Structures are given as C-alpha cells and as structure tokens.
Amino acid sequence: GSGVLMYSLNESYFELNPVRPFDSTVVTTTYTARAYDLVEARTGLIYLPEDPRPFDAVIVASEHSQNVVVMGNGNNIKAEGTEVTSVTISQQGTSLHFQYFYDEGYWRIV
Question: pTM here?
Fold first, then answer.
C-alpha cells in the first residue's frame, strides 16, 4: 500500500517515532495488522499487532462492512475507560485509531 496519513503527538513522541505514513491495506479475510497499517476491513476479524512497540498505531476502517471485530491479540484495548479484549465496529463507514501505550500495556482508541 501507499502511505496516506501522517501525524505526530508532541516533541517527545516525535523523538521516539519520527512522523511516518500509514500503509493502506484492503482486507478481505481475517488479518493481523502491522504497525502503521490503515486497514480497510471488508471482513469481520482484524487482529492488532501481537508484539507492539511503544506508540505503534493502527487505523481500522469499516468502509464496506458492519460488525468488524478488532482483537487486541494478547493486549487489552482501552475503550471508554474500560479495558477489553476486543472492540466491535458496528457501523459501516466508521474508523478507529488504535495506539499502543507501552507503560500501561494496552491499546488505546485515540
């Protein structure tokens, strides 16, 4: 895929992780994301990276599908203040941005 999105959070983040593009991927089967994937999910099951590094990020979009399940793949996901093992994107056209917080040991929806 080609890089389409770039972002940075603050100076300390930038020093650890230079701004880098996300890689676009269209997924039609169960898929395990890599750091900095922008996943257009056309299936119901996406796994976040198993061994994320600090501040790794993944965006999952459900452009053509409903009920896309995003699994933490051994790490919890913090959603609305609660740590869970998975999150379901239940509305077509929705995207979620996940970022890994190493000190806390979970993915957070940002």
Answer: 0.80
